[in-house]
Amino acid sequence: MTITFHGAAQNVTGSKHLIQLQSGTQILLDCGMFQGLGEETDGLNEHFGFRPDKVNYLILSHAHIDHCGLIPRLVAEGFKGTIYSTAPTMDLARILLNDSAHIQEQDAEFSNKNRARKGLPLVDPLYTEEDVMETMRLFKIVEYNEDFEIDPRIKLKFTDAGHILGSAAVHLTIIDEGKEYRITFSGDVGRYGDPLLQSPQTFDQADFILLESTYGDSLHKDLEAIEGQLQEVIQETCVIKKGKLIIPAFSVGRTQELLYALNALEIKGTLPDLAYYVDSPLSEKATNVLKEHTEVFNKKVKEVLKSDDDVFHFKGLKFIQSVEESKALNEDPRPCVIISSSGMAEAGRVKHHIKNNVENSKNTILIVGYCEPSSLGGRLVAGARVVRIFGDEFDVRADVRVIKSMSAHGDYEDLLRFLSCQDPKEVKKIFLVHGEYDVQQIFRQKLVDAGFSTVIIPEQHQSEYL
Predict the structure, then answer these.
(1) pLDDT per residue over 186-195, tens digit each?
(2) Number of folded domains that form the chain
(3) With contact defined as beta carbons under 8 Å apart, do 158 and 142 qualify?
(4) Are 206 and 235 members of one domain?
(5) Which residues form the Metallo-beta-lactamase domain (predicted)?
(6) Are 211 and 240 in the same domain?
(7) How many CB atoms lie within 10 A of CB 422?
(8) 343: CATH
(9) In b/e form, how buried is each residue of 192-230, taking b as 16+ CB within 10 angstroms?
């Protein structure tokens, strides 16, 4: 049996890991889109490195685009197998993939107008909304902690990974050539003590583990401080300086955490009286999906729900739908808070908000999650004084702040705690995925110190025998 790492190998996007049995059966773990890698991005998304029509099963850990975003292209190129996920992941994937397809088609149409004028060949979108419809027909729901038989040789179990709504760690028991293999794929591991979700679950002993490592070199600050940090930034920017607070936030997970924290401030009576905008139709849809799956909430949130039937709504909040309304926010001089996707500020409406506000020293851009270093968000975090947006250069005069503890990814203590249910002596190999190489080297040493003898950092398209 072999496993080949076709994405999220020494970087944090494009999650894609292919298991091949001696019989020829192929199991794909995730099929994510590469994001924020500059000029390389398009080429990486156009070529899988394997034949989609040869894949028998796809197991999806969760619905973030860097884990599910290329599934419709996989289907368009010949995949006809079954896609296994939790029910919330399927619900989120439907809205996220439809949104992604709409963007692909719009981008292709815009590009082709320019290319036609220049006599260049036209380009196709990565996939269409029709491809998404076909994709959704292939989904099969598997509940958390259900022992599910994919076929007589392959058994699957999901445990809650605590990362976003529906996120799961994937556990496979595979019989290949008479030998049993116990394989765990962490997906993305959440934090213990998450403001909204339950903590990651323990899981049965594994022989081989694919482990995410996004924050393998970091410790997040106290989770309880998030509300206070938000209030401080809002007070300084919007109340004292009379400026705008722009928050790039992923539509799934981070936006809902922000709304929950702001609602908590209102309950305490300390939320500044301002206009709060969520400028992302997708975020509103994702928030509604989360409201439909209250079973994933932790005990604290369930307790709040007894006295507050909507923990994501508060005075002054408005969801923005139309492009015209979004543009109007940039023409309105009044102080306000704008939460908008994407989280890395690489695309979407937030990029326009940053362009229109980054040169005003009254304003603040608040980064609340991981940003790939070459993304716009990553460049702002790194302290760039000039940024290029839509082909033009802008001086960074706005304040740039970071609340690192809001990441939906666990830090190295969380990751080590996630592994604490394992006997290191029985784990033959750990493969570090979904992390920057420098971070992975640091985290590898922490794992070795914890007793895991063989920790491998695979390269893109590298194959390993199990």
Answers:
(1) 999 999 988 8
(2) 2
(3) yes
(4) no
(5) 13-230
(6) no
(7) 20
(8) 3.40.50.10890
(9) bebbbbbbbbebeebebbbbbbbbbbbebeeeeebbebb
